[in-house]
Amino acid sequence: MTFLLDVKGLNVRFRTEFGLVHAVNEVSFSVSKGETLAVVGESGSGKSVTALALMRLLDRTALIDGEASFEGVNLFTMSEKEMQKIRGARIGMIFQDPMTALNPVFTVGDQIAEVVLIHRDCTKQEAKTRAIEMMDLVGIPDSRRRVDQYPHEFSGGMRQRAMIAMAIANSPSLLIADEPTTALDVTVQAQVMEVIRSVQESIGLTVMLITHDLGLVAGFADRIQVMYAGQLVETAERDRIFYETRNPYTRALLDSIPSQLGVPGTELKTIGGNPPSLLSPPPGCLFQPRCVHATEDCRMTRPELKSVGQNHLSRCLRSSDLGVLR
Amino acid sequence: MTDLVDVNSREGLGAESLSFGRLALRRFVRHRPAIVSLFLLILMVLAFFFAGRLSNFAFDAVDVTKRLENPSREHPFGTDEIGRDLFVRTMLGGQYSVRVALQVSLLATAIGTILGAIAGYFGRWVDTAISQMINLILIVPALIVLAVFAQRFGGSPVGLALVLSGLLWTRIARVVRGVVMQYKEQEFVLAAKAVGAKPGRIVARHILPNVVGSVLVEITLLLGTAIVLESTLSFLGLGVQPPIPTLGNLIQQSKGAIDDAPLRVLLPGFFVVFFVLFINFLGDGLRDALDPRSKRQ
After folding, report:
1. What is the ipTM of this complex?
2. Model-level pTM greater than 0.80?
């Protein structure tokens, strides 16, 4: 199987006035053509930074090293000019908050057409036609009229559809969706995910979905990758993550999903404590202070990512003696 | 079969969609002082440019038999000490003053917008360099610099406009820099980068349109400042040189008559004051109209 995107040893550090913050630490992963990879983790786990690093959209305080080969080229070594030709053409990206990701002074149609005009040699009229087609594809009703409307005339879900239309207007091969539904209503979330799925099927898109919501990826992802404190802690096929969990952090995350069958009045399960400071990470396992299975050894030794099954990696010193976590 | 609700009417799409520009225009038209001021300003400028032609006298026609006359049917504003018609001279003076002010605001806005946008968008050393240049221009006493440069280059209206622009662009630049810095952190700018837009396109298409409102307001203030500065310099004899009249040097030439014929001094001054007043009302109206949070209907 060929990989569309193959990331090796990605490190992202930010220069701050307090020192270097190691936001992403030795992350390696790959995405196959047509697959949906979900990157899951809590705030500050480095999932968004990973996505922005791949797009080279981090500011100058970020130091990136590692290798990211995408369609046979290394994203990290190409010039900014070449990178501009990749963004929006080969890799599309959608952002968390559709309320602010559209420019309020232009019509939605203008903004979708602009993406086409940047990368293709075509007339404004052709670009607008393409914009209408894209709006139809993402299920924006009455696209002919909607194309001339301004973002403030769109609801949140419709704006996120417009963002998707922008991201896929040039038929990219990879779509990076950075928390695409976080800012939306629960009922609209499902609709937007359905749009992404149908677009994925109709144009053969590979999707990298970044989210903190395991419930959301349950019905959507082929493979799940869990991040904690800038490190990859577990990665496997979706079902293995849900039913054969090997990492205590993943288990804790799964246990934090509010049950729909919950008894009213019972307390929501949470993970106690806070993620470690990335400025001066403690020795040993980064999750150890919050881990219910932690031992003395966990405080001293930093675990490596180890194979625990078929295409299943977990970062835990005790993965062999703990077995499958329930 | 249940009735299908029309999606459009449900989302309130029945009404015609209004762009921000049209909403702003609507708010502006309803701002009474601004509309009255705009009307009076247009009237004043039209008078400056065309009223002189109604008179039978040229601006520099000397008639020593009719020196220092009081206003009459023939000479509505009277005559000066060598018998030139003051109505024609005041109108032409207003014309030169307005021209200088327009040239200044055009040039200063262009320089200020470009440099302010570059400083705000690129930040780092570019910003430091441009900001320090602005500070340098702002800390040196303006009147002295103007006096020196105006004496050298300011004799003609265009020369004076250049000198004033060289000083006044800093205000626009500061405003633009601030707004650009605020907008470049917006997510839609990141989204524009994510679709492969180049920096030039991002600034021109995604950031500057958001700056237009603040710049328009600033231009009105600039017009007022330019008129006042031009009059000041010309009054001090450092601006536009006679025989070309401007509002400033007209006051200067008649200043001795303040006791005998106060109108001769006050009339050009009256035009300066009201021009600036109307401009400020206009700016006020624009500010209210262009503020997206404005609740005024």
Report:
1. 0.77
2. no
